[in-house]
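Field reference: sequence -> structure
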Amino acid sequence: MGQASGDGKGAEVGLSDVVYGAYERRLARGLDPATVPRHVGVMLDGNRRWAKVNGFDTADGHQAGADKIKDLLAWCEQAGVELVTLWLLSTDNLRRDSSELDPLLRIIEKAVADLAATARWRLHPIGALDLLPEETAEALREAEVATRGVKGLTVNVAVGYGGRREIADAVRHLLIEHAALGTPIEVIAKNVSVEEIARHLYTRGQPDPDLVIRTSGEQRLGGFLLWQSAKSEFYFCEAYWPDFRHVDFLRALRSYANRERRFGR
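Structure field:
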């Protein structure tokens, strides 16, 4: 009796895999390459809740989330996405208890180093690196230098990132730049523009995100790319980040493709 039950369960799982695979392929075939977003921002949310639901330690949840990143980047490459921004750690997260924050920083450092070691993606850290421990900031800088010549997908690694902090930094750097040139404050104030501020953002020179994905069921921006996402499309997925599947990514692309982008008009 036990053997029969086990065989039945195995057959059920096998059938589920077949159905899932067929659905995944159908979604992929239905995507028009012309509708694929050029820049995708991803809020990797839900690691802690995933760990709690599955009976793991918080650090295990963060590690599971880090392990998922390479899958996502491969899916983006396959789809034709050119730029991905990953939000790994916010400025608010830096206020967490050291018992959680320290292991998380080590996980991020290793994840970034592993991504760089593939020599497959060009990494660009964004965020207030001055707020991070020096070893974390140095790991991010080293990954950027090591992948500078890579021609593949560009990956913004947002660590110690907050949208309000980015805008404040942009304005601060704009003022410092003009002060160094001796520009009178009245002239600076008169000539401050959207374009001038954008030129000093962490993502300067890059296209704004076409699509922003947030996992874990939360439906808010939380400070992610506040300036850049003004005209982005948003997709909220119920799955916790470690459970995010290729089919979830394809659904996000399909949803984006089916929308009429108005760009504020």
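Note: The domain at 37-257 is CATH 3.40.1180.10 (Undecaprenyl pyrophosphate synthetase).
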